[in-house]
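Here is one chain, start to finish.
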Amino acid sequence: MAKWALAVVGLVVAGRTAFATPSITTSDIRSTSELRAGSTDVISHDLGARLAKASCTGCHVDASVTKLVAEKSDAGTTVSADIHFTITDEHGVVISMIAGCSRATARREKLVALRDEALHGAIENASPKVARLLAK
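Its structure:
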């Protein structure tokens, strides 16, 4: 019985180290305060969910909003989002830098929903590339 308990503990420990997800930080200092409120939470949640199966012990992903603007036109309101991702290894050496961008447009002004849609699109655009680099 003790051998089985030891084997189970060994598998759990091995499973934790084999599937160590990268740490993620987010920042948004360029957008307006109206759009900035909650944007980093959206990014970290969505990116964390997309990279949950990525295994890169000690890796770090920094997601920085470089553009998040709302524009009004005759077609409605458009929110554009650009996010730059920097991936570093356990020593802080930059592995790669990736950019993702997206736009969301609606007739009626729904800034928070449009912001979230644009951020999700930018993350969806870049997350396969980020995951591929983390797998190497």
